[in-house]
Design a protein that fits this description.
Layout lengths: L1 H14 L9 H26 L8 H36 L13 H19 L1 H18 L4 E2 L9 E8 L5 H16 L4 E10 L7 E12 L6 H12 L5 E6 L1 H11 L5 E6 L3 H16 L4 E6 L4 E9 L1 H6 L4 H12 L2 E8 L2 E7 L3 H4 L2 H5 L2 E3 L5 E3 L4 E9 L3 E3 L2 E10 L4 H15 L7 E6 H31 L2 H10 L1 H13 L3 E2 L1 H31 L4 H32 L9 H17 L1 H12 L5
Parallel strand pairs: 1-17
Antiparallel strand pairs: 2-4, 2-5, 3-4, 6-15, 6-16, 7-15, 8-13, 9-10, 11-12, 14-15
Helix pairs in contact: 1-2, 1-3, 2-3, 2-15, 2-18, 4-19, 4-21, 5-17, 5-21, 15-16, 15-18, 16-18, 16-21, 17-18, 17-20, 18-19, 18-20, 18-21, 19-20, 19-21
Length: 622
């Protein structure tokens, strides 16, 4: 747009000159292309630098957003190549033939815009302090909104399906789990929004996500009707909570996978308690769960289902084993064969092959006396019963012990509804630190999506500051003027005003896609600043305009291309911003909202504040 508009304007100016002053169309287009080439090249380089933070993101957020940055930079680079090569050629063949070049003055719409803008511009140039004070106040107000905004890693996805995790008490039989699963499906199918359900109860041991028969997953296909999704989920949770002895977590397939990837659980927030004693861990876990129950926004709250169950415990007597020349490995291997079995051969039946598994029969595996009499072969050739080298008895113990980095742990986990993720995490941390006394050798860590949000936000902030410093140095070198570089950098917060207000009005949740939108805004604001200041300098140096003439003429001549660029960008973004809840549009929508809001302030305030700044701070050197 900038390139075509500049060529068109120069051709039109040339067409109204005296015949002896006119240049050939080729020279006019060449001069116009050369005039715009350096600012466009530099603006493109700046945009690439602005997007540098995305390439420093690590983990899941890096894998998610780096392709976006690469695609944007590639498209900007392609646009640059077209603007510098194809556009001038097409302009040479198409624009000189336009009848509009012969018309005096601007088209009606352009004339109205310029006639409205010019008196405003002349007035604000006379009152720079007032303009800059208002701009500073707007920036301060927008920055003041940031602490009010909620924080989240990613927006809630609208996948059109749900995944319910149904967990019953340890020891529940397959038949009983199946009955509970039927109850869950009955409640689901009574909801008008539910189209169909599919359930899996338990998963095989060799499955990547092996699960006991006490657990089930229900996939639910939805078709939303009169109720919104939040109301539907609130009512569904209320009805499912009436099923006794179960924990039911509600999520979505993709969201579940993201949560599992980030924290190891299928929940948005996990509180991990580490320590040496499993009974103390269980006590602390229940106290943490009680504290979290009172926090607004916490849903699907659960603690790991760790219970005491009957066990046969075998404790080795190392002195007795040494007397017979046995090691713990020798004895453990015999016990493993007795209980788990060992494949000793295979048998063929036609084209089918079957493993022959050697182990105790079920009645012997449950009989304490049979286990005591299990025969162990010694290195000397003697055969001894297991009870001679081990203490074997019935005991009660935990059904499982979770570990992370070799340390025992217990996990309390939950999802969030009705509030932003970051504020709920802050409340949980505050409640636990103030109301729970953690013994020595025990500690708590928090996990989930918010960790990625914190890490990504910190990386984007640090690398953005480095990028801005690099941009400042490049601007100062390019313009050979620190003042010009400072003016462009000072102008950047004007873009943030509209972006922050747009986030506030659109729900008040600041997510990583929103931050990417702010990064994009910095590039747009920098480009507009470069185009304005470059044109001011061109008018002063090449056309011998005074400072005030250059500012007024340059602003008027850049008004239309800047407005056209903003308008075309806005038209492309409106569908994304308007359909934020549409499936597949959840990540693009927050970016679109930020860019759309920022474009308003970046465009209109830029056309007021930048001329005022340039006129005020270059007045002494003019």
């Amino acid at each position: 747009i900038m390139s075509v508009e500049n060529v068109f304007r120069r051709l039109k100016q040339n067409s109204h000159l005296q015949e002896d002053q006119k240049k050939s169309d080729f020279l006019v287009i060449l001069d116009a292309a050369n005039e715009i080439r350096r600012p466009i090249l530099f603006a493109t380089l700046i945009i690439i630098l602005v997007f540098a933070p995305l390439f420093f993101l690590s983990g899941f957020e890096g894998r998610l957003l780096r392709p976006l940055g690469f695609t944007y930079i590639l498209s900007i680079f392609a646009s640059l190549v077209v603007a510098l090569t194809i556009t001038p050629v097409l302009s040479y063949y198409l624009l000189p033939k336009l009848k509009a070049l012969k018309q005096k003055g601007d088209p009606p719409v352009v004339r109205i815009l310029k006639s409205s803008y010019k008196p405003i511009l002349q007035k604000v140039l006379k009152h720079p302090r007032m303009v800059l004070s208002i701009a500073f106040l707007l920036v301060a107000i927008s920055i003041g909104l940031i602490p009010i905004l909620g924080r989240s890693f990613l927006p809630n996805f609208n996948e059109g399906t749900l995944t319910l995790s149904v967990n019953t008490a340890p020891g529940t039989s397959l038949a009983e789990s199946d009955k509970i699963g039927d109850m869950v499906e009955t409640i689901l199918l009574d909801q008008p929004e539910v189209v169909s359900t599919a359930r899996r109860t338990g998963r095989a041991e060799l499955d990547e996500h092996a699960q006991e028969v006490t657990g089930a997953e229900v996939d639910v296909k939805l078709q939303m009707k009169n109720r919104d999704k939040d109301s539907f989920l609130a009512e569904l949770r209320k009805q499912l909570s009436l099923i006794p002895g179960t924990f039911i977590g509600i999520g979505q397939p993709i969201s579940h996978r993201i949560d599992h990837l980030l924290s190891g659980t299928k929940s948005q927030i996990t509180v991990k308690i580490f320590g040496p004693d499993i009974y103390k861990l269980r006590s602390l876990g229940n106290r943490v769960k009680d504290l979290m129950e009172e926090i607004e926004g916490v849903v699907d709250l659960a603690i790991e289902q760790q219970h005491e169950i009957p066990q046969i415990q075998i404790k080795f007597n190392r002195l007795d084993m040494a007397r017979y020349g046995l090691t713990t490995h020798d004895v453990a291997e015999n016990i493993e064969i007795a209980f788990q079995g060992k494949v000793v051969s295979r048998i063929l039946e036609g084209q089918r092959s079957f493993e022959i598994l050697l182990r105790y029969g079920e009645e012997f595996r449950k009989n304490l006396e049979s286990i005591k009499r299990t025969i162990i072969d010694t290195p000397s050739g003697y055969k001894i019963p297991l009870q001679q080298v081990a203490d074997i008895r019935y005991e009660k113990g935990p059904n499982f012990i979770s570990r992370e980095n070799v340390q025992r742990k217990i996990v309390v986990h939950c999802n969030v509804a009705g509030k932003d993720l970051r504020s709920v995490v802050n409340t949980i941390e505050s409640e636990i630190s103030s109301k729970l006394d953690i013994p020595s050798n025990y500690y708590i860590s928090y996990g989930g999506q918010f960790e990625s949000e914190e890490r990504a936000s910190r990386t984007i902030l640090i690398v953005s500051l480095i990028s801005l410093l690099t941009i400042f140095v490049l601007l100062a070198i390019s313009y050979q003027s620190i003042k010009s570089a400072i003016l462009i950098i000072i102008n950047l917060p004007l873009a943030l005003i509209g972006g922050i207000v747009a986030v506030f009005l659109a729900g008040g949740i600041l997510s990583i896609p929103s931050l990417v939108g702010f990064v994009t805004l910095l590039g747009i604001a920098t480009r507009n600043g470069i185009m304005l200041i470059s044109h001011y300098n061109h008018l002063i140096k090449e056309e011998n305009k005074t400072l005030e003439e250059a500012v007024i003429q340059g602003s008027l001549e850049r008004l239309i291309p800047i407005l056209m660029t903003a308008l075309t960008t806005s038209l492309a973004l409106i569908p994304l911003a308007a359909r934020g809840s549409a499936p597949g549009n959840e990540i693009q929508s927050p970016m679109a909202v930020v860019i759309l809001g920022g474009l308003v302030t970046a465009t209109f305030l830029n056309m007021i504040v930048m001329p005022v700044l340039f006129h005020r701070y270059f007045k002494k050197t003019a």
